[in-house]
Amino acid sequence: MSGNGLRVAGGIAKRAAKQKNAGVGGLEFHKSKGQHILKNPLVVQSIVDKSGIKSTDVVLEIGPGTGNLTMKLLEKAKKVVAIELDPRMVLELSRRVQGTPYQQQLQVIHGDFMKVELPYFDLCVANIPYNISSPLTFKLLAHRPAFRAAIIMYQHEFAMRLVARPGDSLYSRLAVNTQLLARVSHLLKVGKNNFRPPPKVDSSVVRIEPRHPPPPIPLLEWDGLVRLAFGRKNKTLGAAFRTSRTLQALEQNYITFKALSLGAGQQQQQPAAASIAALGSSSEPAGMDVSDDEDDDDEAAAAGGSSSMAVDGMDADAAAVQAPGARRTKGKVSPEFKELVMRVLTAGGFDQMRPAKMTQEDFLKLLADFNAADIHFS
């Protein structure tokens, strides 16, 4: 084929790709930005029906795109607040409601969801960008006043991690942290062909109902313990807590807390919202050795199905950072402290437990037992 023929063929291929990815008004959707528009009206209606929207509700929508879901939400809700990053979609959304009875019911916020201050809302109903699933979820859970429920479309694998129970293969730190703060249930699975352009993965809709009030525990302490445990989720806690790096970090915290005379329940804590948001991060607790071949992938890949996932575990050298307020020691852990840790584990029957099968109640009891012995994880 001649050079001109190749250019013509290339131009035809590009136009075909644009038409395939085009939606309302000829807008081209960008997979790199997580723009996969839900096109099946039956699925859209099912999501709205399962949301339980009241006529008095303010509904938050994240990433409304061209407004297929938004228009259905406006039929049911008192008001819809839509947060959209793409200025083209903002204009398209405004165009769709212009001159209709819904124009006064829709508020569009042009900005990045992770950076904007959220207004009051009763429900969140959204088909979100999958590459920010974890931080987005915990930003919602940190919002005050707490909302009634969130009905969110996630990548299917991520959704299954959210709802996993002890003993399930996908049970992880993500499940434990989310279920500490909310009741989570799976509503429906949505195939990739219901979207334009179709992603490389299936999706699922999940209902999240925040617990009122949230559990009265130090959340940063909780997350430190859970991160450590799930770095070795299929090994016993006795084995996990016998590693030298873990014991050294815990002993430094122990010495620091003793020196500051901060007993259990007297620690200085970050504000609740900051603590909740931290549960969605993938960084490791200071000084904790969580390395293992059982590393836990909590963040789902982007809707394109490529890309890496955020991982709970990291190698031992990367995890061995300095405990806050403490100097790193290269010496051995004192026998007395090691005995104290093992005594806490064996007294509660935790030494032979495996995190992959532990319930919320197990983790809460373990944290309380450690804190009672002045052993802390933050």
UniProtKB/TrEMBL annotation:
EC number assigned by the record: 2.1.1.-
Q: What Gene3D superfamilies does its record include? A: 1.10.8.480, Vaccinia Virus protein VP39
What segments bear the compositional bias annotation Low complexity? 273-289, 301-310
So where does S-adenosyl-L-methionine get bound?
A: 36, 38, 63, 84, 112, 127
- SUPFAM superfamilies xrefs: S-adenosyl-L-methionine-dependent methyltransferases
Q: According to the UniProt record, what class of enzyme is this?
A: transferase
Among InterPro entries, the record links this protein to: KsgA/Erm, rRNA_Ade_Mease_Trfase_CS, rRNA_Ade_methylase_Trfase_N, rRNA_adenine_dimethylase, SAM-dependent_MTases_sf
Composition bias (Acidic residues) maps to 290-300
The residue ranges of the Ribosomal RNA adenine methylase transferase N-terminal domain are 43-212
Q: Does the keyword Magnesium apply?
A: no
The organism sits in which domain of life? Eukaryota
The UniProt entry, under Pfam families, shows: RrnaAD (PF00398)
Query: Region labeled Disordered — which residues?
Result: 273-310
Record key words, sorted: Methyltransferase, RNA-binding, rRNA processing, S-adenosyl-L-methionine, Transferase
Q: Which family does it belong to?
A: Belongs to the class I-like SAM-binding methyltransferase superfamily. rRNA adenine N(6)-methyltransferase family.
Which PANTHER family does this entry report, sorted A to Z? Answer: DIMETHYLADENOSINE TRANSFERASE, DIMETHYLADENOSINE TRANSFERASE-RELATED
From the Swiss-Prot or TrEMBL record, give the protein name: rRNA adenine N(6)-methyltransferase
Which organism is the protein's source?
Tetradesmus obliquus
